[in-house]
Specification:
The radius of gyration is 15 Å and the shape is globular. Helix content is 12%, strand content 29%. It has four helices and ten strands. By secondary structure, the protein is mainly β.
Length: 163
């Protein structure tokens, strides 16, 4: 989750949530294709439509689309390899949700405070774009999203970028 969360960060997690938080929140969840825990940003919630492969994927009432903040190039440069997120394992059901990450309290030298939109991290509205869902190939020139996640369905159209 670079740059929002770095390895070794001390995080507070709210385990009391029972449904997906709002778009842009960072969540801790059980990976659908394994037993590991993972941290990703929620970019599409229940009922949203996300671009996937050659079409669109309608998320069910208990599903969310979760993506890493770092691009494949940034993650590889940091020594992590390509991000593993919903582009690889698909939507995540609410049964896999462990909690919402909301506060960093250490280690010394790292900023302390709310985790979410931070300097260097893409803002939540920008993360709803197809560039975030389909990778850099889906981005328009300048790194702007080519399409966006549509709440409700394709008839609603793309979500405007408020940035």
């Amino acid at each position: 989750m670079l740059p929002a969360i770095a390895p070794g960060d001390w995080l507070l997690v709210d385990p009391t949530i029972t449904r997906w938080p709002r778009r842009g929140a960072i969540v801790l969840f059980r990976e659908p294709d394994g037993e590991g825990l993972s941290i990703k940003r929620l970019v599409g919630g229940p009922g949203d439509v996300v671009p996937f492969a050659e079409g669109f994927l309608h998320l069910a009432d208990d599903e969310a689309w979760l993506l890493a903040d770092a691009s494949a190039a940034d993650a590889a440069a940091a020594g992590f390899g390509a991000p593993i997120d919903s582009r690889r394992f698909g939507p995540v059901t609410v049964d896999g949700l462990v909690g919402r990450i909301w506060f960093r309290y250490g280690p010394p030298g790292r900023p302390i405070g709310r985790v979410g939109r931070s300097a260097g991290a893409p803002d939540a509205e920008a993360k709803t774009g197809a560039a975030a869902v389909t990778g850099a190939a889906g981005a328009a020139p300048g790194g702007r999203p080519a399409d966006a996640v549509a709440p409700g369905g394709p008839a609603d159209g793309p979500v405007a970028d408020d940035a």
